[in-house]
Amino acid sequence: MIRVVVADDHEVVRGGFAGLLATQPDIEVVGTAADGAAAVRVCASSSPDVVLMDVRMPGMDGIEATRLLTATAAHPRVLILTTFDLDEYVYDAIRAGASGFLLKDVRAESLFDAVRVIAAGEALLAPTVTRRLIGEFARQHRPSSTRPVALSALTPRETQVLRLVAEGLSNPEIAARLVVTEETVKTHVSRMLTKLALRDRTQAVVAAYETGLVVPRVSGRADGE
């Protein structure tokens, strides 16, 4: 079972997401919260795998709550809920350790898939959202001078896999590109994340941009549209 907490200050949104998720046999809603502080408390007592987190909430906002939750030993994966006009806040959420992003007008099936993807940590979520956000994030932040030291711990193949992950490729797509098995790709991704002390692929994409391993395009839409 995938344990989920839903945090949103709007009761209708909070209840709607919780109700939809509760219909799935492999998903259990273990708590809801109306603000960031309540989300932290609920997560401490319920140990969720995934937290659906709104950005703007009274008191402690979703960004600070994300920062606190991802710093805990349990470090649940946080899925940021956005209306897409909150881009500047979402960039801060990336820094705070968010694993992915979801539009609030998402369809039910996409919501279910998103939670499963985030729980598995196997692929970037909603490429049309995540790639644009990360691409813009990368343009606003210069490469770090310390991260390249960590990259030196990667093998050439792991570095290659990191580049492909940063391009938004899934494990099957990377396997096809490198002509290896999907299981081999999973092993490379797992080792790469461990060596760089990263939680998931979204963080890996950010790291690839921050180190300068991948350079964002100067012009054009980052989501390919």
Could you walk me through the main structural features you see in this protein, from its secondary elements to its overall organization?
With 225 residues, the protein is α/β, with parallel strands linked by helices. The protein folds into 2 domains: 2-120, Response regulator (Rossmann fold); 139-210, Winged helix-like DNA-binding domain superfamily/Winged helix DNA-binding domain (Arc Repressor Mutant, subunit A, Orthogonal Bundle), CATH 1.10.10.10. It has helices spanning 11-21, 36-46, 62-70, 87-96, 108-120, 127-140, 147-151, 156-166, 171-178, 182-195, 201-210, and strands at residues 2-7, 27-33, 50-54, 77-82, 100-103.
Highlighted features:
225 residues; alpha/beta; Rossmann fold; Arc Repressor Mutant, subunit A; 2 domains; five-stranded parallel sheet; 11 helices; 52% helix; disordered C terminus; transcription; phosphoprotein; Two component transcriptional regulator, LuxR family
